[in-house]
């Protein structure tokens, strides 16, 4: 895979999120149209031990992260954009032994709010396990979060 500046920025952003590291969420693909993250299947994301179905909290984390990171694809410079509202419609359970992919894209960018939608799916994007819509607040490019977060985004060591 070619390492583009957008892909590099997305990977740095994801590496600054400890909960995503714990879940082993990875950037699958990213371009100006949107982002796809991958949540590898593991025993740590199982919600139903009898069936191996994936816990809804793991899907929520994947999708909130994917939607939040979709802002990287739409804004010329990085901005901290916290979640204002997130709605997830679960359509079917995440089945055992299959990775989950979270696709997200911005469909409207205003001065203060970014509107994003996406889907979570396993083997077929046309058969989503969840549909997601969210709004994210634009705080501006001068706000960088905590000092360690800002350093990680810049690729600096601590």
From TrEMBL:
Keywords: Hydrolase. Residues 52-127 form the Thioesterase domain. The keyword Hydrolase applies. One of its GO terms (molecular function) is hydrolase activity. The keyword Acetylation does not apply. It comes from the Bacteria. It holds the Pfam family 4HBT. Its EC number is 3.1.2.-. PANTHER family: 1,4-DIHYDROXY-2-NAPHTHOYL-COA THIOESTERASE 1 (PTHR43240), BLR7284 PROTEIN (PTHR43240:SF7). This is PaaI family thioesterase. It comes from Pseudomonas ulcerans.
